[in-house]
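Regression test case RT-17, inverse folding.

Input:
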């Protein structure tokens, strides 16, 4: 079957301004977080991004999902530059690319119950006609991610890290996304819970044909999840290829080092 490319990152570069002149505002210092990166995300597939902390992984994920603009380069959504999308197409793109993060509790408003966290976006985006319909959809989402519906009336602080990450996944699924950017989604969880979340993500991918950008500093975890792996080092993709190939036959010393440190 021919594969379809959902998102392309084309020659992405990201510079952060770290110092401006205090009066003129002229840029005095900048930091290049991503030097040059290009890659495609195919429908139903996972692109893994691995590298040490500070290598530019999150920056790439945020650019691809529209949370940040690249300094140079372009993001294409089904072949169309996101800069050229109509307002409606842009909204569709932003809904179609969702995120889950390392710290699910930090990404949820502590003042709202899980039910509100799930129903509010459905009502705001008018995906659900009324509260009752939104609640029914939220219930279905909770069961999809393996959570008991009794969790609905709890606040994020009252549930475990694993349960909260499941709820965050449920929230990411509300808009029927094409892509989920998973940024270190299991790094803060206990080992036993990590495996459950990774397997849930794999099941969802199989059932819903979602694509993932799976970001982690742990090449073992990335290998388990990914079809293709990009190895990042100091803002550059230093190695890439099919996951098994990169893991079994790494070409770069840097990749070899990541593998050694993951499997000792
Ligand atoms: N808003 C920002 N301003 C300045 N520097 C930043 C900003 N965000 C990230 N950086 C820097 O860019 C580099 C890459 O960051 P990041 O993409 O978060 O890396 P990773 O996710 O691989 O740990 C880091 O050195 C980080 O300190
Ligand atoms: Mg990061």
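Golden output:
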């Amino acid at each position: 079957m021919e594969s379809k490319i959902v998102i392309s990152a084309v020659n992405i570069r990201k510079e952060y301004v770290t110092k401006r002149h205090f009066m003129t505002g002229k840029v005095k210092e900048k930091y290049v977080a991503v030097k040059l990166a290009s890659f495609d995300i195919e429908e139903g597939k996972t692109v893994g991004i691995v590298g040490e902390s500070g290598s530019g992984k999150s920056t790439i994920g945020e650019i691809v999902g529209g949370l940040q603009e690249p300094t140079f380069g372009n993001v294409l959504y089904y072949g169309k530059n996101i800069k050229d999308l109509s307002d409606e197409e842009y909204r569709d793109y932003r809904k179609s690319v969702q995120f889950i993060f390392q710290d699910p509790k930090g990404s949820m408003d502590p003042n709202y119950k899980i039910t509100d966290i799930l129903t509010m976006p459905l009502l705001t985006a008018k995906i659900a006609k009324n509260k009752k319909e939104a609640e029914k959809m939220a219930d279905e989402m909770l069961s999809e991610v393996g959570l008991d519906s009794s969790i609905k009336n709890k606040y994020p602080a009252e549930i475990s890290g694993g349960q909260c990450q499941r709820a965050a996944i449920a929230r990411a699924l509300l808009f029927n996304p094409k892509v989920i950017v998973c940024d270190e989604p299991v790094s803060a969880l206990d080992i036993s819970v990590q495996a459950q979340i990774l397997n849930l993500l794999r099941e969802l991918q199989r059932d819903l044909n979602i694509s993932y950008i799976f970001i982690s500093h742990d090449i073992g975890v990335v290998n388990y999840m990914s079809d293709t792996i990009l190895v990042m080092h100091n803002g550059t993709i230093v190695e890439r290829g099919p996951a098994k190939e990169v893991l079994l036959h790494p070409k770069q010393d840097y990749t070899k080092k990541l593998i050694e440190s993951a499997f000792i």
